[in-house]
């Protein structure tokens, strides 16, 4: 690919991990996911910072996405430097050293009638 695709800085203003789930785990566990696409020829070194309404931010959470690969990262699985609390509103900023594309997905399985929602993150600082 001759031109980079994506941006180096993204924001997801909405985040919430439901406290309960309905259905077999891990597939039906209520979760939030950040989907990262690195279409470049270089590793993407990604940092995620999580913001809350009532406390200081958490992070950065560091992730490496291999060249020409995608990675889906559940916020539920982030542990270092601390787990993301369930049942708490949050937002996140995703920064990368190479342009990437970021999408946000939530599976809410608190009821038998599950809800899945996905949206593109807000892109900032686009270009190489």
Q: Low-confidence runs (pLDDT<50, min 5 residues)?
A: none
As an assembly, this protein is: single chain
The appropriate CATH architecture is Sandwich
Tell me how many strands there are: 8
CATH class descriptor: Mainly Beta
Q: Can you give the helix content as a percent range? A: under 10%
Shape: elongated
> H/E order of the elements?
EEEEEEEE
Topology, element by element:
Blueprint: E1 7-15, E2 31-38, E3 44-52, E4 58-65, E5 69-74, E6 90-108, E7 115-120, E8 122-126
Antiparallel strand pairs: 1-6, 1-8, 2-5, 2-6, 3-4, 3-6, 6-7
Describe the structure.
- It contains no helices and eight strands.
- The chain has 128 residues and is an all-beta fold.
- Strands 1, 2, 3, 4, 5, 6, 7 and 8 form an eight-stranded antiparallel β-sheet that branches.
- A hairpin with a 5-residue loop joins strand 3 (44-52) and strand 4 (58-65).
- The chain is elongated, with a radius of gyration of 15 Å.
- The two termini are 13 Å apart.
Key terms for this structure?
mainly beta, elongated, 128 residues
Q: What's the short story on this structure?
A:
With 128 residues, this protein is mainly beta. Helices cover 0% and strands 55% of the residues.
């Amino acid at each position: 690919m001759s031109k980079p695709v994506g941006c180096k800085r993204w924001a997801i203003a909405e985040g919430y991990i439901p406290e309960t789930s309905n259905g077999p785990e891990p597939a039906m566990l209520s979760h939030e996911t950040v989907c990262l696409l690195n279409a470049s020829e270089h590793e993407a070194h990604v940092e995620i910072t999580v913001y809350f309404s009532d406390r200081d931010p958490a992070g950065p959470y560091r992730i490496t996405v291999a060249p020409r690969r995608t990675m889906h990262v559940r916020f539920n699985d982030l542990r270092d430097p601390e787990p993301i609390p369930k049942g708490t509103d949050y937002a996140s900023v995703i920064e990368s050293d190479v342009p990437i594309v970021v999408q946000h997905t939530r599976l809410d399985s608190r009821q038998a009638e599950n809800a899945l929602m996905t949206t593109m993150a807000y892109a900032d600082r686009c270009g190489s």
